[in-house]
Amino acid sequence: xxxxxxxxxxxxxxxxxxxxVISAVKVDTTPPHFEQGLLNAVAKSGVDYADIEFFAxxxxxxxxxxxERKGVKTALLTTRGFRDVLEIARGNTPDIFNTYYxxxxxxxxxxxxxxxxxxxxxxxxxxTPLNLDDLPGILDTLxxxxxxxxxxxxxxxxxxxxxxQRLMAAIHELWPQVAVIASHQVSRALREYxxxxxxxxxxxxxxxxxxxxxxxxxxxxxxxxxxxxxxMKSNGGILPVNAAKQDPxxxxxxxxxxxMLGAQAYGQLIGEHNLLALDIGGTTAKCTLIHxxxxxxxxxxxxxxxxxxxxxxxxxxxxxxxxxxxxxxSLAWIDAAGSLRVGPQSAGSTPGPVAYGRGGQAPTTTDAxxxxxxxxxxxxxxxxxxxxxxxVAHAFARLGEQLGVSSKLLAHGVLQIANANxxxxxxxxxxxxxxDPRDFALMAFGGGGALHACALAAxxxxxxxxxxxxxxxxxxxxxxxxxxRRDYIQTHLQALDEAxxxxxxxxxxxxxxRAVAEFASDGMARETLRFEWHxxxxxxxxxxxxxxxxxxxxxxxxxxxxxxxxxxxxxFRLDLPMEVVNLHLVAFGVVPKSPMAPIGVSDQACxxxxxxxxxxxxxxxxxxxxxxxxxxxxxxxxxxIDGPAIIEEATTTTVVQPGDRLEVDAYGGLHIHIxxxxxxx
Length: 681
Hints:
With 681 residues, this protein is an alpha+beta fold. It is built from 17 helices and 34 strands. Strands 12, 13, 14, 19, 22, 23, 30, 33 and 34 form a nine-stranded mixed beta sheet that branches. A six-stranded mixed beta sheet has the order 3-2-1-4-10-11. The protein has a five-stranded mixed beta sheet with strand order 7-6-5-8-9, sandwiched between helices. This is Hydantoinase/oxoprolinase family protein. Residues 504-672 form the Acetophenone carboxylase-like C-terminal domain.
């Protein structure tokens, strides 16, 4: 038995896989005691803890701790003269013409940013030895201030951590109770501000993250779970819980990336290697781009970036995703200018959408899908909730009165605005990265992905939508398909030329040796590991880099790949020397997996055997169409359905628009070809 759980902002999902057979459940998330939702999901599934051989878990605990400011009081120790790096930040702004822009306030106030005497140069050579004479007094001050965590970030420690290591050891000796993390444990890449901020945020979330993971592990052990849990990391890999506690900031996007890597895995299974992956949950919509079967990993992640704030950079490997505050629970509201808006505020699971009947007053995207007939009122939330249809109608009528439109027209407006927001997110991950969305298929999942996918694809000219099996809990499914993973990013400045290639290979071998040792501490042998080599490179004299994969170690091949990536990102290439800035080793520890079993094959293309009835659906305002309903679990490989159609399952609903055609693949995935009737006409 293999089990994976994903705690989202609205729902907690659980998927369990045994002998190729997948089952899933969905329950309400239970803030602030998120582990209770997980335990509720296991109880609902009926899974016996003693039967579980593999347990993976993804959570929003780190990102929630940051955005809700629920971390601990944190101090920063840094090189003398550099206490204000966090305050100075960067001069770049999201919008240079926005006069409301303000630099984001540091997580550590100035009186808790203290200095020590030491100095290294950019080569890591000691200029001023570390002086620890003032440390006892500094720690006394921090104790009086009620500090619970200390971040250490010394100048140029990325290339020589010796002073950080000595300072950290001294703090542990003088104050063993305080949580301490140093920048070299978080990032070995240059950029002082980004490294300082990342270390501070990691210290800020370390105690609550450890408490959460310890509490979760204790509950699971008490229930009879034998194997240690794996935790989903932002880089698209999983790690044992004890290793994850040592680097808490690496869990910042622990939940969302599971679905993105699941899309990659399912794409490989069915031979689809160019995908736009879209996850629409209850609170947010997330998307990423998969090109030639690969997901991009970024080391330049930012939280809380808006038009009036540059946000907070986090220098940890994160799957390159775009996330917006639009999901099934996103609230419809009217702004000060009298315009209809949707999100980013969410109804969550409590009170939830108006349809839940738990006291919600403002209509949501889910309510709009229900009111226009897309969601079945007789099988709402898998039949577990009897929706308050009358309450939904009143909610849209109240808001519609303010705009002078009917309730149904307002509901369609909510869907159109939500779709427009999601289209913009898909453009950010594709067009803004130098890719044409028409060259990709759209794989949509999450509770709301299948409801909106066909409309989004039609807007962007995407020819095909894929709804994978168990789309409503797909992030949890994705965790079952992943290997353990560690990323090693290290600044290593050198020319990208023939003379420097042997040195490049030598340093990568050193990083591999470090990875072997660290995986061994988790009980994973050398023969289970595989490695990928990447470099961050630039033209000499440039500021920023592009990532290049070292598939072959011939210099001409590496240089051509760099030129191509640079041209894709910036539209031009130059005849200039190139230099390496960072080395990026990706180390995978292969975890045994259960392959997905194919479903049954139909002896005819007709899907009438899966048809369960029909109902009126409004795809356009005031134009209801009698639409066929199908049970997804009854669909077989080879069946075809011409839109309009609604495909229903326990955790989501697929909307096939008029003019679209659906086909079922070997594993039960739905392939929807967009506007095929228009193309034929």
